[in-house]
Every structure is written in structure tokens, then in C-alpha cells.
Amino acid sequence: MKLTELAAIGSGILLLFSGTFASAFTLPGTKALGMGGAFTAVADDASCVFWNPAGLSQLGRFNLDLSLSASGENVEGFSNLYDLYKALEDQDYEAAKETIDKGISAPMSLEPTFSLEIAIARRLALSGAVQTEFSVEKFEYNDSGPYVEIQDVETGIVPIYLTYATALSSSPFTVGLNAKYIQGIRHSSHFKLLATGDTEEMDPEQTSDAQTTMSFDLGILYSPEDSKLTYGLMVEDIFEPKVKFPEMTDPDLESLTLPRKVNFGVAFRGIPRITLAADVHDITSNDRTFHIGGELDLSLLKLRAGLNDGNLTYGLSLKLLFLNLEAAYCQRAKTPVVSLVLLRFGI
């Protein structure tokens, strides 16, 4: 086979997939995304279990929400990487060269999330999510030989939420608590894709189920009497649990820490049909982010916009009888976020 041609266009391509997954999962919440992530004090749909569980007290008697959210970094580069892989596998060296000429650079990532929330009687909710990450942190050419060396790592977690919310008697405070049962899986492989199209294993392929992990969130809403303002506080993963993958031998892949995050927000509902909100997320760390957003309620149609740490967001909701169709988009350079409500029902 044409080893010299492969050497000429790539001469050994090394791909290293990141083992750092602690904060890359996409958070559900189509309305929240449309409002720039300023949702801690708004928290008025079923996705509040992820943003502030105290918001359950603001819902109807029954709510069901099924949604898809996805984020990605340098998605075009990820697509080019896949095209390159297929071209080398098919020994189409001209196509491989054209793909390389388009430009492939790290980091690249894909982080889709599916979520389902069921809320009952303004107090209880049972929710779940499937959160995954596939990330490429390094891509570089080298002269080690006419092959492609690939090490990939994929991680998925499935948290199940049991949520309870209640208003404190004779006070403007509402408190919500999430108890989360977390399972997951992690996979890693390390192999060469040869110029012949064959593969050669470099390290044993690894797959590990996660040990069962529990975690807790606390949410608070404060709505002063005769005030147009509502304040919200969310403490996520209070005890910073670790999701452990005992069958992974690489120390970087043995566990996934869920860091504690503290978010604070304020919402203003003093103008008819308009909600305005502002949030600060992760306020106890050096990675805090700032969010502002608003919603215009035209009854059957709701329009949303905001700034998610300086990035524009847009969203809309269309009501059809008991159903709502919703979509949102965050316009970040090379790292867009999209969220769709696939089904929403409430009474």
C-alpha cells in the first residue's frame, strides 16, 4: 500500500482524548438557555430541578418535560477529523490531504444531554438525564511512522433526581432539595490505524461501569411581600462527590469529581408580560460567570434573549393547547449550544 503517500500527508497523526470531564456536561433547560442562563431566580418550568429545585412551587399540578441539549467546541474541526479518519481507513489519500488542508485543530468536543422531568403537585419531581462527553484535547502531526495513533475516551453519566420543595410557613422563603442517584460508564481504547486500513491495538481496551454515587443540591427562592423582585440561590453537589470507575487503570480516568457550584440570581417581574433576570454562577470560584436575560410573554408566543457570560442567546416558545414547542441557541465562537424541548405538557 501507499505508505509513502500517507507519510507525506500526515506521517503519523497522534490524537489524545482528554480525561478531564468534570464540568463539560451540557445542562438541560431550554428556557434557561434562551434567557442567557439567568434562571436561578426565575425557575418556573420543569427544568428548575437542574437550576433551582425550589422552583417546583411555581409549577402547575402536573408537568412533563422531555428535552435535548447539546454543546460542542470546534465542531467543524471534529467533522473534519471524522472525514480524515474515514479517508485513511478507505486509503483515499487525496481526500485525506484535502481534509488536512481544511485545518484540524484541538480542542474539539461534543456534549449531548437528554433529560426528562415529571413534576407533581408543586412539591415533588422525578427527573433523569443522560449526559455524555466526547473530547479531543490534542491533535498534532509527528514523524513517528505512517499510521494514525488514536486514544479515545468517552464518558457518560445518568443522574436520577428525586426533588422535594416546600414553602416555609409564614415566610417568603421556598426551599427545594435534590437527592441524586448517579450511575455511569467510561470507555477508553488506544490503537493504530495503519495505512493498509487495518488496526493494531496498543493498549488493552477498557470499559468500566461507575460505582453508585449519591449527591445533593439545595435551592432557595426568596420572594418578599409587595416586591417585584425574587431572589434565588442554588448550591449544586454540596458534598462534591466522586464518580469512580474502578476498572480504569489510568489514574486520570479512575474518577470524575462533581464540583460544588454556588449560583445566585435575581428576577424582576414589575412590567406586564416581561421578565428580566440576572445571575452570577459559581460565585465561590475564580471561574465565576455572569448572565442576564429576559422574556417577552405574548401569550401563545414567548420571545427570549440574553447574554451568557458575554455570548448572545436567543429562544422562543410556542404554545399549542397543552403542549409547548421550545428552542434556544447560544452564539459562542466555535462552541455553540442548542436546546430543544421535544415534548412539554402541563396542567
UniProtKB/TrEMBL annotation:
It is found in: Cell outer membrane. GO terms for cellular component: cell outer membrane. It comes from the Bacteria. It is a multi-pass membrane protein. InterPro entries: OMPP1/FadL/TodX. Keywords: Cell outer membrane, Membrane, Signal, Transmembrane, Transmembrane beta strand. Belongs to the OmpP1/FadL family. This is PorV/PorQ family protein.
